[in-house]
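QA checklist item 7 of 12: single-chain prediction sanity check.
[x] sequence parsed
[x] length recorded as 190
[x] structure emitted
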Amino acid sequence: MKTLYEVLGVSRQATQPEIEQAYKVTLAALAIEPATLTVEERDIREKVIREAYAILSSSHRRSAYDEKLRHKSRPTEPVISSPPLPWKKIVATLVLVVGCLYVYQVQADKAEAELAALEAKRAEAEADRAEQLALAEQARLERQKLQEKRAIQVKQDQEIAQVRRDERIRQERIQKMDAQATQEKASATR
């Protein structure tokens, strides 16, 4: 187990300015460390560095910590640090693959929905066009019926006019004949 001095990389006899300088250097080194650390590991290390600085920068807290170190027996066994387990990379890769598959599925669903919407719009447009054609055909048929009615009406009007002319001519002939008969009677009586 590391001591707070080891965390900051200073000796137990380090002065206050040396501790402050080591704190800044250690934080900077953590910031540029390779991306092998996870976010949680970085956060934990940063908290440990900040706590070490907080204790060692206060003279009262530092003396209490030094007293604790004198009474504490250090283990004789060396601490073996193990490299990060590869399963983290495997899990990260699996998460990435699952995320990609999810994004692909979402995009495929979205494309399918857009295609269905386009088909629906096309069907709606075709239905509108068919309705417009039906309305145009209905209007054409109505115009044709109206023209036929007008033609029949014109023919009837012509026939009525012809009948009236014929009647007028017959009336005129009857009047001529009556006038002639009256003249003949008048000439016969004379």
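[x] summary fact logged: Helices lie at 4-8, 16-31, 39-57, 59-71, 87-189.
[ ] second reviewer sign-off
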